[in-house]
Amino acid sequence: MTAAEEKAINIVYDVVVIGAGLAGSMSAYLLAEAGQSVCVIEKSRGSGGRCGNQRIDDQVRVDMGSPYIHTKHPDTIQVLDQLVSANIALHWSQQDKGTTKTYIGSPSLTAICRHLVQSSRLLTNTRAHHLELDHTKQVWRIRDSHFQLITQCKKVILCIPAPQAAALLAATQGTEDLWVTANQASKHSTSQWVLWLETAHSDLKSIICPDHPVIECMIKDNQKLSHKGTSCDRWVIHSRSDWASLNLDKSKEHIAEELIKGFCEDTGLELIRHGSPHRWLFSRFLPNPSDTPFKWNEELNIGLAGDWLSSGDTEGALLSAHQLAKKIRSTL
C-alpha cells in the first residue's frame, strides 16, 4: 500500500469523486474551490477518461478520445476561459460556430483534467467496487473488489459511464432511483474505434466529416494550436458508431486496415505510418432531455454527473458537473 493510499483510508473526506474524466475533474475542482476536502478515485493510471491520448514518441502525444470541447453555455465558457488564461487550455477560434466556442487542451485535453484535480487527492489504478453507507455515522465507505477499504467520505459523486455507474449502484442499498437512471442511459451508449495515422502535408480542412460507411470524422491533430510545426500531417480517424458495433471484437489489424482504406479512399492521400487502434467501449451517449443534467440524493448524499445526464458530449460532461457542484455548494 502506498503512502497516499494509507492516508486516504485514515481520512474521512468531505467528498469522494469516482472517475477522473472531464465530469469528475470538474466536480473535484469546483468542490475543492469551495473548501471541501476531495478524493478522486480513478481506475486508470491517470486522469482524463474519454479525453485520453496516445504516446507516439517521447515528444509527441495524440488525442485519441474527445478531440476538443464545443461549448456555448456561459458557465463552462467562464471556466474554460480561466484555463486559457492559465495556459492549460487554448481557444481554437477557427472551429467556432456562431455562439459555440471551441477549446483544446495544451498540449492535450488530459492537461485540463490534470489541472482540475490538482487540489484533490487522486488515487489512480484504483477501482471502486462496493459502496456502503454507515447510517449511524453518516459516512460512506468505498471498497475495492477484495472488499478492502479504499477511503471514506461524507458525500459520493459517480462520474463514470452509465453502465459502470449502474453496476456499482446495483448492490448499493437505497440508491434505486439513481440505478434506474444509470441503467436506462446504459441502453443508449455507443462504441467507437479510433486510429492515428500520418500523411504528407495537404491543404485539406482540419476537421472532415465524410459521408462514409466506416468513418465518422477525420481530425488533423497537428493543426491544433498546441501541435503545430510537425513535419507531416497527423490525423485521428474516428469510426462510425454503427460500424463499430458490428466490429467490436474484430482484430486490431482488421480495424486498422478498414479505417486506413476508408481514409485513403476519401482523401486520396498516401499513408506514411499509423498507430494501433483504440476501442472506446462507452464512447458516447444520446442526449438526455431532462432540465436537470445531474442526479443528487440529498438524504443519502450521493449523486451522478456525466455527459450521459446532459447533452452527451464534452460540454455535457462539464455542464453536468458544474450544475451538481453548484447544487452541493448551495448546501454548505
Describe this structure in words.
With 332 residues, the chain is of the alpha+beta class. The protein has two domains: 3-187 and 287-329, 3-Layer(bba) Sandwich (FAD/NAD(P)-binding domain); 189-285, Polyamine Oxidase, Chain A, domain 2 (Alpha-Beta Complex), CATH 3.90.660.10. The chain has nine helices and 19 strands. Strands 1, 2, 8, 9, 10, 11, 18 and 19 form an eight-stranded mixed sheet that branches. Strands 12, 13, 14, 15, 16 and 17 form a six-stranded antiparallel sheet that branches. The chain has a three-stranded antiparallel sheet with strand order 5-7-6. α2 (22-33) packs parallel to α4 (109-116), α2 packs parallel to α9 and α5 packs antiparallel against α6 (176-186). The longest helix is centred in the C-terminal third of the chain and has 16 residues, at 252-267. It starts with a helix and ends with a helix. The model has no long low-confidence stretch (mean pLDDT 94).
Outline the secondary-structure elements.
Layout: H1 3-10, E1 12-18, H2 22-33, E2 38-41, E3 53-55, E4 61-63, E5 69-71, H3 74-85, E6 89-91, E7 101-105, H4 109-116, E8 121-123, E9 130-134, E10 139-143, E11 149-158, H5 162-169, H6 176-186, E12 189-199, E13 207-208, E14 215-220, E15 233-239, H7 241-246, H8 252-267, E16 271-274, E17 278-285, E18 294-297, E19 302-305, H9 314-329
Parallel strand pairs: 1-2, 1-11, 2-8, 11-19
Antiparallel strand pairs: 3-4, 5-7, 6-7, 9-10, 10-11, 12-15, 12-16, 12-17, 13-14, 14-15, 18-19
